[in-house]
Amino acid sequence: MCVMLKFKLFLSAFTGFKSTMAYEKCLETQGNVTTGANGTVVCDFKKLIEESASGTGLAFIAFTEAINQFPVAPLWAVLFFLMLFTLGLDSMFGTLEGALTSIYDMMLFPHLRKEIVCGVVCLASCIISLCFATNTGPYVFSLFDSFSANIPLLVIAFMECVSISYVYGLEQLSDDIELMLGGRPSYFFLFAWKYMAPVSMVVILVASLVEMYSTGVSYEIWNADLGMAQTIPWPWWCQVVAVCLILCSLLWIPGVAIAKYFKLVEYKEESPAFFPSEELREERNIMPHKSNAIERALFGFKK
Q: Which long-range contacts (CB under 8 A, 24 or more apart) does 300-303 make?
């Protein structure tokens, strides 16, 4: 994740460098004049930034232009796209393992070997991802990128914070961390888990929904007649697909809760795994924690 962030920062820096070079070239062509005879802006740096490549274009358009300026450009091109390939594999390992672990834990296919389940999931994912390799693949990718991750991730992360801080309890979580690491989390982390993180995610979620409602949902297309990118609203059926992409990740939270509460599906209770809590307390000389007034008032500690 840190490598990917540095990579995006470098691409953004190169985009600014490219726009600056185009702006200086425009000024040189126009004789250092930014406006034309009729008052129109000829050399507009803001417009150059907005027309720069974004999204996948940063990797496959902007950076390829940067590579051409390097010495031994073919070598750097091979290394760059090999890095992209390994970054993709690294991301998919974590994503796939998260999905497979849920399937294994729920014992949906108890009689199938794990290798077969993994192969079937990978094959199904590969077949579904073929839609990104078609002529309209960039638009499908934009649809998935805009709606399948932002809102669902915010809601899921908010529910995780609520579950840990208000259902499981920060007191029990602090005791678990002390057993595992030998020290309790600071007040800053407790405050962030219970207040800062949920409030931040709610604010971001509400701001995103308000922006979608006020400005609408749109995507960029290339207008060959004008020779520039244009932003147009998504068709109604694409908006229906977007709603389905959001709900297919979120409906599991209330769906499983309702199914377990009303016992619509029979779940086999698992026996808790052995955890050497007493041994760890003796080994690390951990004494029972007595909460103070701040912990009881702010974080809901009871002991």
A: 300/166, 300/169, 300/170, 300/171, 300/194, 301/170, 301/171, 302/171, 303/171
Task: Please give the Cα distance from 41 to 45 (Å, whole number).
Answer: 10
Whole-number Å distance between alpha carbons of 95 and 102:
11
DSSP string, 111-179: TS-HHHHHHHHHHHHHHHHGGGGSTTHHHHHHHHHHHSSHHHHHHHHHHHHHIIIIIIIHHHHHHHHHH
Task: Give dist(CA 21, CA 26) in Å, integer.
Answer: 9
pLDDT tens digits, 255-267:
988 988 888 877 7
Q: Per 3-state DSSP, what percentage of the chain is helix, strand, and coil (rounded to 5)?
A: 70, 5, 25
Note the pTM of the prediction, 2 decimals: 0.74
